[in-house]
Amino acid sequence: MKHPNMNPRRSYTATVRIGLALALAGSLAACATPFKADVSRFAAQLPAPQGESFAVVAEDPKLAGGLEFAMYADLVAEELTELGYARAASPSEASLLVRFDYDVDNGRERVRTSNVGVGPAFGPWGAWGGWGGGFGFNRGWGVGFYDPWLAGPQVRSYTVYTSGIDIKIDSTTTGERLFEGQAQAVSRSNRLQTLVPNLVEAIFTDFPGNSGETLRITIRDDESKKVKEVD
Predict the structure, then answer these.
(1) Predicted structure pTM score
(2) Cis ω on the peptide bond leading into residue 91 (within 30° of 0)?
(3) If you write DSSP's letter for every residue of 72-103 in order, what string do you get?
(4) CB within 8 A of 48, min separation 6: which ones?
(5) Integer-rounded Cα radius of gyration of the chain
(6) Alpha carbons 46 and 190: distance in angstroms, whole number
(7) Distance (Å, rounded) from C-alpha 46 to C-alpha 72?
(8) Of 55, 41, 2, nearest in space to 205 by CA
(9) Residue among 88, 13, 10 at smallest CA distance from 56
């Protein structure tokens, strides 16, 4: 039963505000998006881990000896150790030399246009049309008004960055290249402290993989992963 003092405009505006609040909450939840990386790997016959040792060295001499590089090299070492390889005390004592590099670019601008709304709905006065394209309403419900609170399409500009890591594994005995792999991601962040651990985790997912394939590795907040082949 309708309340005798119900104001159609007030009820409609309240409905709109609730819809926009839900849409905003959804967009904020979407900000915690999974980390996605494209991983390409090429491998010869890697030796079985038993009896093999490795050392992680900087591909770029400018990174060698740095504390930041050492932190990321430890991440690579942890992955190899979990696979059964032993970390050597020094590169000269290792049977496998792991060359590691990482980087992030200066970013580029992207522009996105989006329509905020909850889509078509039906209320006590009939149908009101979908939002977007100028917020065209179905006049069937018989109450027309202009509400300046309702904005048009949102246009916003933001910066995206491309980050990547590169890993090469060579045999110190024969000098043969045994593995090459790259992981690359596009994100809103340029913080290597966040990006590199995810990229390392991505490149070692199902390691060493099938030589020559490129995979999209998705890492979610709950640490679950999705692996999809990229055409």
Answers:
(1) 0.68
(2) no
(3) HHHHHHHHHHHTTPEEPSSGGG-SEEEEEEEE
(4) 84
(5) 27
(6) 33
(7) 22
(8) 41
(9) 88
